[in-house]
Every structure is written in structure tokens, then in C-alpha cells.
Amino acid sequence: MTTPITRRTALKNLALGAAGLPLLGAPLARAAGAAANGLEASASRLPLAPAFKLGVASYSLRGMPLDNALVAVRRVGLNYLSVNRAHLPWENSPPGWAASVAKFKAAGVGVRCCGVMTLKNDEQAVRTAFEYARTLGVSVLACSPERAALPLVARCVEEFNIRAAIHNHGPEDKVFPSPHEAWAAVQPYDERFGLCIDVGHAYRAGADPADCIRRYRARLHDLHLKDSVANVGAEDTPVEVGRGRIDQRAILQALNDTGYAQMVWFEYEKDGSDPLPGLSESIGYIRGLLVGMGLDAAGQNRLVS
Amino acid sequence: MTTPITRRTALKNLALGAAGLPLLGAPLARAAGAAANGLEASASRLPLAPAFKLGVASYSLRGMPLDNALVAVRRVGLNYLSVNRAHLPWENSPPGWAASVAKFKAAGVGVRCCGVMTLKNDEQAVRTAFEYARTLGVSVLACSPERAALPLVARCVEEFNIRAAIHNHGPEDKVFPSPHEAWAAVQPYDERFGLCIDVGHAYRAGADPADCIRRYRARLHDLHLKDSVANVGAEDTPVEVGRGRIDQRAILQALNDTGYAQMVWFEYEKDGSDPLPGLSESIGYIRGLLVGMGLDAAGQNRLVS
Questions:
Q1: Residues 6+ apart with CB under 8 A from A46
Q2: How close is the nearest chain A Cα to the Cα of B98, in Å?
Q3: CB-CB neighbors (< 8 A) of B239 in chain A
Q4: What is the pLDDT of residue B31?
């Protein structure tokens, strides 16, 4: 299974897969994803399934209490959650966190990230943020640190062995408007200190999301997927994924080509008080696009009813 | 514009289209769709956009009154409706119909079909059904006629110049379980008497939906799109499009290859009391699939926020 998978082989396997040869399914896709993860990865390799998984950023469900949000995640067909403070504040005491962890488990929802955490240069506050992440059992937290806090965050990344991913927040963000500034800021530190590319805010900041994914893949630890009809430089105008200006196809191709094996979070910002229709449309669009592009023939990201 | 469009030409035009040459957009796609409509059509032709349009079968919204249903159609990003009796009974008096027609216009929703109408061999009832269709301004009605009513329906098709499309309803339907029986039944009549293929019920009846589209394209006047996790022969178990067993990719390819230029209706049967999330996911999935397959590069079926 260590033989590099060429486009021709992969296409042949796709056809065989349709004929029902299970051995050529998910395990081979995994091997392909792993191969594509190295710097020698080339666009001519075509895994049978993307190495990344789809999940819901709980900010999308900010208008509902946690219990309802957990039901909603399952209803839209996904199993993974990135927890926002709207559902579990990170300033709470640890006993409160543990009760919620039990709820996630009972609901069958896997927590894989948390954030976006605003981090001041305050040792106690930053340590509390990492303890929260450790309690949730996640291996990465998305954050928006002030510049002076970077060395402190970098020390916690090493001490806790939890990756920190700087989230770019568009033109209004004076520290990290685009992934470019985040990438430059983490260079002095361990590679576990990296990026959470927000494709919508990156676009508004004048950065090309797919290009950023390719350039910064070595430290790409997390990703927020969304769409927007805002012009570059303009205020955010979020819409359902597939209705906006962002080239979703280019983003999925870049994630696939670089062997991105982390989470892709739907952060649906429109319709805060009734987000399910737009969130569902966004998830449906991306799944259809993956299948149509031949990137998910093995049904790795198949939704479950 | 009558030159046949080869795959190579179409791909070249796709690239030019991205560079912003509007003359190569929708009109050329129309021409390609028209060319593909003839019997000489071949799968090697690749229109820039499908000739069909996406709309909502109002049965999906049966749990809400007409006013809310019209808001819902616009919310899910579509502009076309196939009217079910849940929103406008066809047994009503014509004055009631006209008031609803005014509502459709005011909402900016185009009515393009109605049904599925159960038609007994009763001259007055069948004529009323066609008068209803004429009042709505549609050129096709979807129906489920009893066998004895076929000559009567055929006469009305000619008199009203409104196409009638027989809807197959799965194993429980003793007259038209699959498109095969509907196709055989309409052979003695004018070609305007044809089929509304319901892909979900066709699948349950053991018919291959994509194969039926290709075989019966000459009389394919309407289509209900859905998904199901039911086995062949089993009771219906409708799910969100993309989560079930039906090969949506094969269906879209068949519609494209045959130049189908009518409506594709989302008939979402699950979640009758709260259909918007699943309906939206279904629409998103099909739009993403079309874009991923390269069948909607011109954005013919782009949703509008």
C-alpha cells in the first residue's frame, strides 16, 4: 500500500470500487491521503476520498442552547463539532466543562477543536484556555492572540502538546487580517503553532484561500469554510456555501492536493436565529461538489441519516 | 450557433467563460442543449449549463400554507414551483385558482407544473384538471390516470395543448409502478402524452432511473428528484438527496446527455412538518454535484440569495 497512487491507478480503482471490491475503499484512500501529505505530493495523485473530515463550528448554532445544538449537528448529518464559547465558555470553571464533555459523548458528537479563543498576554488566561482544550480532549485550538501573547501561546503549545491555530479575521482585524500575517507570526515557533484559515475572511482581506492552503499547508491545522458575497475589503456578507463569490472548488482541490488531514468546519454565519436550512444547504453543496469532482468516491464524508 | 459543440470546444469555452466573455454563456449553452436534444446526441458533447431548471414540488412544503410555501421557495434559492393540491386543490372553483395565480406572480415564483393529479375516467373531472393547468399557465401537468381514462386524457392533451406526464409511484402502484408501464401506456397517443419520472419510486420498482431517462427521453416531460434508503421492492424511506441509494450522478449525466430541457423538481418527502433543512441540503447537494461534474459552469442553476 506504499506504492504512489497515480491518477490512472486511482481512476481504475474508482471503477473497481463501483463493482464492489471493498479492499480498495477507505484503507487505500487513507494511504493515498498519507502519501499526498508529504512535500512531494503532486496534483496528479487522486485519492479515493479526502483525508479531511467535515464538521460544524458551533458558532453556526449560537442561537440555540447546547442540547439543541447537539441534536442539530446530528440532523445535518455530521458527527464532529468545534466548540464555541456560545455553548461552553472557556472562562468557566473546569467542573462545568466536564459536564458538557459528558453531554458530547452521550450525543455521539466528537469534539475536535474549540475556538476562536481571543488570547491576551495573560499567563493565567492562556493556561486556562489550554486546560479547557485538554479537558475537551482536542488536539488543536483555534485562536486570535494579541501579538504580545505569541511567545506565551508558543510555550503552552509545547507544554500541553496541543496545536494552536491562528484564525485570520478579515480587513477589520488589525493583527491577522489574512493567513499571510498569521504565517509570518508563527515562523519563530514550533510547527504545532500554525493556522486556522478562515476562507471567507481571507477572501475579504484580498488573499486567495486556495493559494493560502497550498502555501501554508505545513502549518495548516484547522479551516473554517463559508461563503460570502462581500467584495474584497468590504464588510462581511455571509451566504450559503455555493451562493457566494468564493471558489469552493479550488479550495477543495487544494485541500485534496495537499493531503490536508484535519477538520473542515462549516461556520455558517447567516440566519443566526434559524441556521439549519442554510447550514444544511452548505453541507449538501460541499458534499455534492466533492462527489462531482471525484474526490469522495469512497463516501468518506457520506452523511448518515 | 448551429455548429455542433464538441467536448474540446466546450472545455475551451469554459475557460473563456471564466475570463468573462458573456456571449459564450447561456445562449451557447441553450444551443448545446438543443443540439443534444436530437437523437444524434452523444455523450461527448458537453453543454456549459444543463438545459433543465431546478424547482420545488410544493408537496415538499405540504405542512405550510401557500403564503409560507412561497417564502420558503425563495429562501431555498429557487424560483419555480410545481403546485400540489395541498396548496391549491384542483377541485376548487376557477375564481379560487385565479387568486392564487396572483399570489404566485406577486411572490416572483414561476409555476411550471402541477400535480400529481389522480385522474378517473370522468370527463368533467379530467376537463377541470386541464382547466386548472391552463389557468396556472403551465404547459405540462403530472398525473396518475386510471387505465380507462387514458383515451380521455389523450384527447384533452390535444384539445388544451397541455402535455400530460404520467407519474410512476412504485411497487404499491398497480397501474404505473415504474416508468416502463407509463411508457408502454402512452404509445398509442400524441407525444405530448408522456412521462414524469419519479426517480425514487422508479428505483423501488426495480427500474434504473438514469436508464429510464435515456430510454424514454422522447416523451420525458417532467421529473421528480429525491433519494431513498429503501431496498428495491420495499416501502418508501425518503431521505435527503445524497444520503440515499440512488445514483444522483448517473441521473444528472443522463439528463445532460439527453438534453432534457424541462424541470427537475425536488420532491422532499421526509420531515413534512419541518422540511427546510433537508430540502435545502438536497438542493445544495445537486447544485454542488452539477458544478463538480462540470455541468453547470455557466451557473445556469445558481441560487440567488
A1: A5, A7, A10, A11, A32, A294, A295
A2: 31
A3: 305
A4: 38
**Count of beta carbons in the 10 Å neighbourhood of residue B304:** 9
Q: Which residues pair with B80 in a beta bridge?
A: B110
Cα separation of B135 and B131, whole Å? 6
Measuring CA to CA, which residue among A202, A258, A197, A289 is closest to residue A47? A258
Largest CA distance in chain B: 58
Low-confidence ranges of chain A (pLDDT < 70): 1-48, 92, 297-305
**Most A CBs within 10 Å: which of B268, B300, B305, as the mutation test of the A interface?**
B305
Please give the helix or strand (H or E) that residue B39 lies within, else none.
none
pLDDT at position B250 over 70: yes
Closest CB to B284: pick one of A285, A292, A302: A285
Longest Cα separation, chain A: 58
Matching residue, cell 462549516: A266
Handedness of CA B154, B160, B165, B167 (dihedral sign): negative
Q: Write down the residue that cell numbers 389557468 correspond to.
A: B135
Nearest CA in chain A to B277: A277
DSSP string of chain A, one letter each residue: --S---HHHHHHHHHHHHTT-GGGSHHHHHHHHHHHHSTT--TT---SS-SSEEEEEGGGGTTS-HHHHHHHHHHTT--EEEE-TTTS-TTS-HHHHHHHHHHHHHHT-EEEEE-PEEE-S-HHHHHHHHHHHHHHT-SEEEEEE-GGGHHHHHHHHHHHT-EEEEEP--TT-SS-SSHHHHHHHHTTS-TTEEEEEEHHHHHHTT--HHHHHHHTGGGEEEEEE-EE-PPTTSPP-EE-TTSSSS-HHHHHHHHHHTT--SEEEE---S-TTS-HHHHHHHHHHHHHHHHHTTS-TT-TT----
Residues on chain A bordering chain B, Cβ-to-Cβ distance under 8 angstroms: 75-77, 229, 239-243, 248-249, 276-294, 302-305
Which chain A residue has the Cα nearest residue B275? A277
Domains and CATH numbers, chain B: 50-301 (3.20.20.150)
Q: Which of B5, B12, B61, B63 is nearest to B34 (CA)?
A: B5
Q: Sheet of A110-114: strands edge to edge?
A: A110-114, A80-83, A53-57, A263-266, A220-225, A193-198, A163-167, A140-145, A117-119
C-alpha cell at A64: 440555540
Q: pLDDT tens digits for B256-288?
A: 999 999 999 999 999 999 999 999 999 999 999
Amino acid at B167: H
pLDDT digits (tens, 9 = 90+) for A68-116: 999 999 999 999 999 999 999 998 677 789 889 999 999 999 999 999 9
Residue in B with minimal Cα distance to A228: B305
